[in-house]
Amino acid sequence: MDSRDWGTFLLPYEQAVEELKVKFKTMRSELKKREEYAPIEFVTGRVKKISSILDKAKRYNVALEDLETGIEDIAGIRIMCQFVEDIRRVAEYIRMRKDLKVLYEKDYITNYKESGYRSFHMIVEYPVQTALGQKEVLAEIQIRTLAMNFWATIEHSLNYKYRESLPEEMRGRLKKAAEAAFVLDNEMSSIRQEILVAQKSFEDDSNIVSST
Ligand code: 0O2
């Protein structure tokens, strides 16, 4: 493929990323208006770099003419949540949508990766309306907490810088850092839970006082 072919090949993916970003940002504002806090903190999206597509195709033995079906994360959306329990809720909202089809899910939170990576992935089929008609594209939606995102962003940039040559000791420390992020997530959830319980009992007490 020359650069012009790549340009047209990536067009529907760029459209899918732009549209899905708008849709999930809209979901965030809607939920924020309905409730006191939104389970979505922020949303980002990207189209995979050509060099990464080629790297992955080589790793998975995918021929250039099979990229559309063989590489599922050319279009990528990332949804960041405050709390671990928000992730399941957001995943459920996505399953209920009529504008995309969830093909399968990868739960790297329960089954975290060897590196320590945690995130919930959903591979979806999304129809884009192009000038030439409807085209189904695959997209990967990653749902994670702010702490999981903090870890993954730094680990990704260190791995990218040092490629495969990251010393074993560093990998071990990164894995420990991922555990620390997970402990932090659990502690934040537990603090929140206690605040909610205290709030509820405070509200119940004031209801009793006002009704007497
Ligand atoms: P980019 O293009 O740089 O954003 P793979 O993990 O890629 O060999 P698989 O099973 O297809 O194979 O992975 P999956 O589940 O589709 O996940 C791929 C994406 O998940 C990665 O994209 C990352 O965004 C994220 N990810 C997976 N494992 C790790 C990890 O150990 N550390 C970090 N930081 N991120 C991970 P790319 O390919 O890196 O994408």
From TrEMBL:
Transmembrane segments: none annotated. The chain holds residues 1 to 212 of 271 of the full protein. Residues 45-166 form the RelA/SpoT domain. Its EC number is 2.7.6.5. It comes from the Bacteria. Keywords: ATP-binding, Kinase, Nucleotide-binding, Transferase. Homotetramer. Belongs to the RelA/SpoT family. GO terms for biological process: guanosine tetraphosphate metabolic process. This is GTP diphosphokinase. GO terms for molecular function: ATP binding; GTP diphosphokinase activity; kinase activity. Pathway: Purine metabolism; ppGpp biosynthesis; ppGpp from GTP: step 1/2.
